[in-house]
Amino acid sequence: MTIDPQPDELVSSWLHRLAIANGIAPRPFAGVLGLGGGMWSPRLDLQLPRDVAVLLGGQTGVPHEAISAMTMTGWALTPLLLPLRENARRNRSTWMQFCSLCLADEAPHFHRQWRLASRISCFVHGCGLRDRCPACHAGIAAPDQADLIPQHFCVRCGFDLRRAPKVSVKTAARRLERSIHDICRIEAAKGSLTIGTVVSRVLRAPVVAGVTSATSLTTLSTPARIRCFEQLAERSDDWLAPGGGNAVAQRRRLVLAAGGHDRLIACLANFMDKRQGSPRPAL
What we know:
Elements: H1 11-21, H2 26-32, H3 40-46, H4 50-60, H5 64-69, H6 171-189, H7 195-203, H8 205-209, H9 222-232, H10 247-258, H11 261-277
Helix pairs in contact: 1-3, 6-7, 6-9, 6-10, 10-11
């Protein structure tokens, strides 16, 4: 049975849904693909072997380009990915985050963007993300599921992650998060060499915020990163913009001040509308 990939879905998430649809639990599905156990499917998110990609394309009919788009191979934001580990101390990061409202969709799946340490909230529902089951506090361990149970159920205790309570995040922190996302997206799309500098600055966010002894954003749990962003939102935006008055610094400051690229465009459009609608000065 073929399962269509969802927008922004991780290949590991798609494989789990594919396994369940064909009557195979996620853990033994690794053997079907000729792979080992452990965190097998998240490793494919980072690097999908060609033979596995060919096998999946041939058996499902999903185009190679669509399968490749679900991976993070060659992604400019790779340094921002959360580390591949299932469990950690409460203030440490785990490999996957989720939005309970997104998992309540018709085809529950895990998003590529949820792997990024720079993401703390859901842009669709406006709530904070989670990186642990609220019932047993274990990390998301979908690759270890040995039964025919969908991935939105906690492997450790069986809790339905769709029932997880909403997490509150301050508006200023969500605007900062959106601005960082837009700056990274724009500079990565342009193939700009500056993407490396902005990623490095984002990784050092805990040091700038002074909320923890951690030196990298990727080491923090989601609640700790939410607190970090809330602290940063109260500070000057100079930590993210390079010094000087060059075009890169100006663009980043404008996006940060507006709360995102779309907001910046809207402000500029509104400004132009007002200018065009104003009466011309008398000669």
